[in-house]
Amino acid sequence: MKTLVVKEHILKANAQAAAENRAEFSRRDITVVNLIGSPGSGKTALLERLTKHPEVRFAALEGDPETSLDAERIERAGASVVQIVTQGTCHLDAGMVHRALRELSLEGVRFLFIENVGNLVCPASFDLGETARVVIFSTTEGEEKPLKYPGAFTSARAVVLNKIDLLPHIPFSLDRAVDTLAKVVPRTPVFPLSCVTGAGFDGFVEWLMELSNRAAPRHGGARVAGRSVG
Ligand code: MG
Ligand code: ZN
């Protein structure tokens, strides 16, 4: 009983911080993706590969319980990045993102990717103020992940199925994974791809650009027209 009350209080405070983040992202015209996946699913590798697509100009926040190893990888790949070390906490919250934003340069970027702590459970409960969530899982994790962790999958706007380059070497069935996803998230686009070879990336990049165009109509869009100015 007490635990439930505490959780409600935490989530209420989080919702307020998330709303502030969202307002700031909107003001800066930045599309924000909250990237959720297990440890080792390829979250950092996805961002490294995206630096090869110049149209997706992005900055990144890296969430990890310890170390700044992932931020170092993203920095080497050429993107502006800040590491959030959660000191053991198994998810990011909106307040952590809010504080990290003060340290991050967002000049000239169109996207902010927030790599959440590797975990498919509680990151799904914490709104960070993002435009959209993307969940990533990989062929080494098994086809049943969407059934075991429906919260992460149903809250995502797109699913990335990583490591398809390994398909010839492992018993993973792409058909079975796609069937499982069709049961859990029938209307969510799925992008099978490889962060190693780059196969399947073009479709995902296209989806990101559409997301950005829809989220922030830049000139004469509906949201700008609807705003009272002057
Ligand atoms: Mg990582
Ligand atoms: Zn957690």
Please summarize the sheet with the most strands.
Answer: 7 strands, parallel
Helix coverage percent of residues? Answer: 40-55%
| Global geometry | globular
Mean of the pLDDT scores? 92
Rg for CA atoms: 18 Å
- Continuous helix count: 9
Compact summary:
This protein is an alpha/beta fold. Helices cover 40% and strands 17% of the residues. Mean pLDDT is 92; it is low at 219-230.
Summarize the structure in words:
- The protein is α/β, with parallel strands linked by helices.
- Helix content is 40%, strand content 17%.
- It contains nine helices and seven strands; from the N terminus they run αβαβαβαββααβαβαα.
- Strands 3-2-4-1-5-6-7 form a seven-stranded parallel beta sheet, sandwiched between helices.
- Helix 1 packs parallel to helix 4 (94-101) and helix 2 packs parallel to helix 3 (69-77).
- The N and C termini lie far apart (51 Å).
- The model is unreliable at 219-230 (pLDDT under 50).
- The structure holds magnesium ion (MG) and zinc ion (ZN).
- Residues 90-91, 122 line the site of zinc ion.
Task: Give a quick set of tags describing it.
230 residues, alpha/beta, globular, binds magnesium ion, binds zinc ion
